[in-house]
Amino acid sequence: MAELLLETRIPEQKQYESKPFPAVISPSLSIPIPALSLPLLTQSIRTQKPYLDSLLHESGAVLFRGFPVNSADDFNDVVEAFGFDELPYVGGAAPRTSVVGRVFTANESPPDQKIPFHHEMAQVPEFPSKLFFYCEIEPKSGGETPIVLSHIVYERMKIAHPEFVQRLEEHGLVYVRVLGEEDDPSSPIGRGWKSTFLTHDKNVAELRAANLGMKLEWTEDGAKTVMGPIPAIKYDESRNRKVWFNSMVAAYTGWEDKRNDPTKAVMFGDGMALPKDIVHDCLRILEEECVAFQWQRGDVLLLDNWAVLHSRRSFDPPRRVLASLCK
């Protein structure tokens, strides 16, 4: 292991099967602070890639803290150093802005809104396998990005609600979202159809929707998308375990704006409504099992999207967290 990268601890960490969650990497104390540089970090990432890959596989999440990652450009260099292929953000619901290279803003919905737990783009067939977050401006207060291990949620739900989980495994879920033409920055799911499908042409949008397995119905002032039925539980082959890979709680509790009623945003694959009490019990389990640490400027968080769900708590501005998605 290179001298620069040192596994450390933070108070918020949890232990699962004697492995820390998340894993935390900080600069080794043997490196004098004046010698700490971005090129040293990116070079260490390249040379220690097998070690970092195995750490991510074991833990599901790796937080890099205390390194000189001072701008969006620096963050882009860190992402590039890992060498993962980029995944364009097509079909996602969140309003975002491209910043530089492979970097864009994380969900830009208003600070007083929570963003519920979800796997990134779980409601479309092509989703990122990994994602990065970077704290450019730390929040005045709040604004954590809580993370939770998906297989733990599955195991707890199976014990608490076996018949519900069986029904989910049999039927999957259908997601319904009503979109305006343009983005609505006041909404957590406010991407309009033009930026959702990266086009102004309705024919191109229909084609891109079809490629995602999505039905697109045009309305007077926008469009309605219907996705599914798609699986709500996936099998993580690399770890030989089932994961709670869906946006059920996020859609049912958070897909709300002037166009969308969240209780109609998601249903069983056969059209049957979801029982409210069980959805809210799932939310309770997510909150119980999650880890939420305070963002510090320069933090880079790498998540395995197969293993971990994430959310966002409300905050007092300023806060700027950037993201990058990888295939």
Automatic annotation (TrEMBL):
Assigned keywords, A-Z: Oxidoreductase
SUPFAM superfamilies: Clavaminate synthase-like (SSF51197)
Limits of the TauD/TfdA-like domain: 36-322
This protein's record includes keyword Ion transport: no
Gene Ontology MF term list: oxidoreductase activity
Domain of life: Eukaryota
Keyword Oxidoreductase in annotation: yes
Protein's name according to its UniProt entry: Clavaminate synthase-like protein
Species this protein is from: Cardamine amara subsp. amara
